[in-house]
Amino acid sequence: MYGLDVGLREGRVSALRVSAKDLLEWVHGLKAGHRARIDEALRSRLGTGLAEDMRAMGQEVKAIVERGTILDDECRLLRSWVEMIAGDPKKRSEMDAINKLMERFLTGRE
Length: 110
Known about the structure:
The chain is mainly alpha-helical. The protein has one domain (2-106). The protein is built from six helices and no strands.
């Protein structure tokens, strides 16, 4: 994880946030054993793992939905979140709310 190491060393917090979100999206489709290895590596280097990052990402999404408006840099986060929850029937209403919000944002009706 060269990019994460450089970001940590140079204190590039925004780059680390983007990398963390990319990583969550990427590992979502992996087998459980591979996710566990990545989680272990994150915990040993950063002190937190995938579960904490997923919760934090979910809280960010929840705040955006509750606010009812999307800032330009939040659209990618919402798209990633929708992709990650798409197969979970329990998340259907959350996905519908995000899709409606994104539709308003993308068509300029906010």
